[in-house]
Design goal:
Helix 2 packs antiparallel against helix 3. By secondary structure, the chain is an all-alpha fold. It is elongated, with a radius of gyration of 23 Å. Helix content is about 85%, strand content about 0%.
Amino acid sequence: MTSKLPKDLRNLQEKIEKIELDLGDKNNPEIQKSMSYGLRVGIELVVAVALGVLIGIFFDELFDTGPLLMILFLFLGFAAGINNIMKQLNSLNKDKQG
């Protein structure tokens, strides 16, 4: 099929096939490591924010303060999630350097 195409299109077709082969290799350890790291970062941020909101709702109900504590703990949960992500980035950077 590629023999009937002009030279430029053949080159493009070969590049596309090479990329498809590289991306299709799900057993590649680098791809698996990157995917697991991205998933872990996303989950940790969502969990930290959700826990902050739940704790805030609990204390709002306990002290009858309305949404004030929920908003406060929402921001604290977000800050904790960002802090965890920064720690992971620093440890990942140290692993690659050393």
